[in-house]
Specification:
single chain; 150 residues; 5 helices; elongated
């Protein structure tokens, strides 16, 4: 199924996250540290805003019920785990070993896949066109306020 225009900016962000996840899961002794730094920088400079948008706009739009509650809990838990890992790597509280880099990469990939395969399709099938358009406009407005990346 083609992604709705409303959620397309978040899907594009997910592509960037998958590039980072790939670098992490392919890490070896020579690249574990640089891959971990890339991840920590990416989360700190970009994904924090992405996570905030999802938590502020998408999760409240989930229909009431068990499926929506479980998805919201998983998204929040994943975001928290990824933020914590990035923070600990950024301030040297975690040693960026090959095993850690690969585990974080697998976690990031699993998170993106869950959102793309479960969260987004559930929202697209549950919300009417007007609700999706409103979410899309809010995402677009937030993106327009994002400072340019170097």
């Amino acid at each position: 199924m083609k992604r709705s225009a409303a959620l397309a900016p978040l899907s594009r962000d997910h592509h960037h996250a998958l590039v980072i996840a790939s670098a992490l899961t392919r890490a070896d002794e020579g690249t574990a540290r640089s891959s971990a730094k890339l991840f920590a920088d990416f989360i700190g400079s970009h994904e924090i805003r992405h996570f905030a948008l999802e938590e502020a706009l998408l999760l409240p739009a989930l229909p009431p019920g068990e499926r929506g509650r479980r998805l919201a809990e998983r998204v929040r838990a994943d975001h928290q785990e990824l933020r914590e890992a990035a923070g600990k790597l950024a301030d040297d509280r975690l040693e960026p070993t090959v095993e850690l880099a690969r585990a974080i990469g697998a976690r990031l990939r699993a998170h993106v896949q869950m959102e793309e395969r479960e969260l987004f399709p559930y929202l697209e099938s549950s919300l009417d066109g007007g609700a999706l358009e409103r979410i899309g406009a809010q995402i677009e407005a937030a993106e327009a306020r994002r400072p340019p990346t170097a």
